[in-house]
Each structure stands twice: as C-alpha cells, then as structure tokens.
Specification:
It holds the Pfam family Aminotran_3. It contains 15 helices and 17 strands. By secondary structure, the chain is α/β, with parallel strands linked by helices.
C-alpha cells in the first residue's frame, strides 16, 4: 500500500487540508518525514508536545502502564488517575477533578456544570453564558457556539441558546452584558486561535469582581495556556485572578490525548452521579503519561527555563524584524508567541508558514494575520537559534516575493 498524501484525499473526510509532508519520526524538537528530511519543530503539535517528541519520561510511562492495565471504564477507578488528580489539586486552586479526552470535552463539562450549578442553586432563569469575540473553546456544538468565531458554528442548524459575546479586554462592554441572569463567563487568559491576545490584568480583575457580584462562575479555558506554556504552571497564577473552574488539555498529556476540568468541592458537588461522564476519560494509559508529563514540567527548572527561552525567541524575532520590517508587534507569554503582521503583509500569515516549511521549519498561524510559535518547553537553545535562522530565510523569501 502506498501511504502518501494522495491516500488522504481518497480515504479521509475533507475537513482538513494537511501538508504534503508526512512525518514518520520525532525526537526532541526535530522530526523526519518519509524522505528522511529533517525539520525543526516550532509548532509543537499546536501547544501539545510540551516535552517535544518521544521524551524518555513519557515513553517509559507509556511502556510501563501498557504492560499493566489499559482500560477499565469509570465503573472502577485506577491508580494513575488518582495520582494525577491529587497532583493537579495540590498544584492549583482546585479540589476536584473530572477527566476527559480533549480540551473541547473538558470545556463541555465545565459549561454543563456551570449551567447545572446555576439552575439548581439560583433558579431556572440563570442560564446566560458570556464569552468573547475571537475566542476558541472546542468543536462540540456547545463549545463552538460559546467560542467567539461564528464561522465555526454557523451552518449546523439551531445553536445552543443564551450565549452572548463581548469584545475581549473591553471592560465597559462587559459591564453592560453581565447581570444576575449570567451563570458563567468563559475566557482564555491568552486568546490562542484568536491571535495570541493576552487578557490585561485590569480587565481580568474586573471580570472576576463582577462574576462575584452577580453569582456567576468564572471559567478559565487553559487548554492552550496550561501546563507551563506561559512560564507559570497555569496562566491564572501569573495573572493574579483565580477562576472557579479551569479546563486543561493539550500539554497535559504531552501528546497523549487527555483533558481535565478542575474546580472546587462545592461547585463539583452539583455534578452528581449520572449527570455527566466519559467512556475513556481518566483511562490508565492517558493518566500515566500525563502524570509523567506533569511531573516533568512542574519544576522550577523547566518553568524558569520557559521564561529564559521566551526571551531568546523574542530577541531573535525582533532582530529579524529590524532587518525586514514585517511585524507590528511580538506578543504572548512564555512559549506561546504571536508575531503580528504589519499592514504591508496584512492577511498573509499562511505565506510565512509555507515559506518556513520550505526551509524545514514547522510554524503555525493564529488567524490570517499572526504567525504563531508553540515549541517544546524544553527545546534546546541551539534549536531555537537554528529555527530562527530558518525563519529569517522564510521571511526574506516572502519579502522578496
């Protein structure tokens, strides 16, 4: 059987349009394709591969657990899930954990819990959910409707109701929307898909205060920002605002699918037996790998390293921009970095991604106007430098047409 890009078009649903290159091997911050060509990875599986490819700690955890027990269903619990839940609660504001398989599922659980909590505690009218323009919370029908990009939720029929959107970082607009009928506010501490846009501290603080005033739950979607990505274990810890519910996924498993919703004991008590569930959520394989990833990332060495590597990354991007003048700003936190194109290159982010791939560098976009970088949190400095040298060639290609 010829396993190539053409086979994708024959056998796969057409909702993706992957590159022609098919990677077959990865190690650290490098991957190799079917032809043996080597690439530097600044994409990290979209902020998932927090320890790069095939990190020994994750490989060992998978091998060891793979020879013990794979799946039980939630009729029984298991040791890796309990250990991971304890570590999550020890390291955060939370006291209770619900495991799922993805960020969308963690967000779905968060939204269902918020509605259940509000209706049971305050009455049937308390159902409004406020989210933000350009936000992204997943692809289930509930989460994609809460997400602030109508293009992803239009065309599928009637949407879940009582969901409203506000401009991000707009305090006055938010004040005008929130009321005693608001059950929850969902926000990303840094909007990822929306263009790497950080919440400013005053805005986040005001959202927290108004949620308290109106008995609304504050849900932080930390699917992309969590598990060390910003240089804090979770971004809320650097923002100084504590949510009521937090979703985490992506980097939580370091490449193995897992998600979690974490919250307080009081709020979690409304998720009574039978109200929500997941066949695979909290399975021993995923939790064993996630525990190894979490233990490896949640150290001063790695978290401080993220901040140092971020500075190196930004210096390199600023130096490239000083030569070629293509970016209006470099924004983000830690190793969640967005290079925002200036008006001369408006809407051309994909051109930079394609040019990078031509120079054996994997990058991302966030919308049409931002080149996004989410590399491994432990990427060697020499790989940052080599990748930036490749990126400079890519920028030169775009600039020179």
């Amino acid at each position: 059987m010829q396993v190539n890009r053409e086979l994708f078009d024959l056998v796969m649903a057409p909702n993706y349009n992957p590159a022609a290159v098919i990677p077959v091997k990865g190690e650290g911050s490098r991957i190799w394709d079917q032809n043996g060509d080597e690439y530097i990875d600044f994409a990290g599986g979209i902020a998932v591969n927090c320890l790069g490819h095939c990190h020994p700690a994750l490989v060992n955890a998978l091998k060891e657990q793979g020879e013990k027990i794979w799946h039980l269903s939630n009729v029984m619990t298991n040791e890796p899930a309990l250990r991971l839940a304890k570590k999550l609660t020890d390291a955060t504001f939370a006291e209770k954990v619900y495991f799922a398989n993805s960020g969308a599922e963690a967000n779905e659980a968060a939204l269902k819990l918020a509605r259940r909590y509000a209706i049971e505690k305050f009455g049937a009218n308390k159902t409004q959910i406020i989210s933000f323009a350009k936000s992204f919370h997943g692809r289930t029908f509930f989460t994609v409707t809460v997400g602030g990009q109508a293009a992803y939720s239009d065309g599928f029929g009637p949407k879940p109701q009582d969901i409203v959107h506000c401009d991000f970082n707009d305090i006055e607009a938010f004040k005008a929307l929130i009321s005693d009928n608001t059950c929850a506010v969902m926000m990303e501490p840094i909007q990822g898909e929306g263009g790497i846009i950080p919440a400013n501290a005053e805005f986040a603080q005001t959202v927290r205060e108004l949620c308290d005033k109106h008995n609304a739950l504050l849900i932080f979607d930390e699917v992309q920002t969590g598990v060390g990505r910003t240089g804090n274990l979770y971004a809320y810890q650097g923002l100084g605002v504590t949510p009521d519910i937090l979703s985490t996924a992506k980097a939580l498993g370091g490449g193995f699918p897992i998600g979690a919703m974490i919250t307080t004991t009081e709020i979690a008590s409304y998720l009574k037996v039978g109200t929500h569930g997941s066949t695979y959520g909290g399975n021993p394989l995923a939790c064993a790998v996630a525990e190894a990833a979490f233990d490896t990332v949640n150290t001063p060495e790695v978290l401080e390293g993220v901040k140092a590597k971020s500075a190196l990354f930004r210096e390199g991007l600023e130096a490239i921009n000083a030569k070629y003048n293509v970016f209006s700003e470099i924004r983000g936190e830690g190793l969640l970095i967005g290079a925002v194109l200036n008006k001369d290159y408006d809407g051309r982010a994909r051109d930079f991604l394609v040019a990078s791939a031509n120079h054996k560098l994997l990058t991302l976009v966030a919308g049409t106007n931002v080149v996004r970088f989410t590399p491994s949190l432990v990427i060697p400095n020499e790989d940052i430098e080599a990748g930036l040298a490749a990126f400079e060639k890519a920028v030169a290609d775009v600039v020179n047409g």
